[in-house]
Amino acid sequence: QMQLVESGGGLVQPGGSLRLSCAASGLKFYTVGWYRQAPERQRELVADIAPGGGADYADFVQGRFAISRDNANDTVYLQMDKLKVEDTAVYYCNARIISGFTYWGKGIQVTVSS
Fold first, then answer.
1. Pairing of strands 89-96, 31-37
2. What CA–CA distance (Å, rounded) separates 92 from 36?
3. Is the pLDDT of residue 98 over 90?
């Protein structure tokens, strides 16, 4: 059972930045995605990154967010810049592997407000 540990959330003003981290032993072998869920909305994919580093982004974060990974330390990051009020949500880390196993973190709150 993989335990994903998320950190880095919090309160930030519009236009500000935050960096989320997701860590777990063995994460280097997994495709890792960051998802978010705002109140009364469905969970949506923000970005994901393959073990080799290839990344994909949702259209709504293009040019503002960057996903990266440090395989030596089994950690994936989500750098979030130019944050908007509408980025407010609980952000979840997801790890999946080709065999079908998938794991979720508990989620971390990101609030963008003046």
1. antiparallel
2. 6
3. no
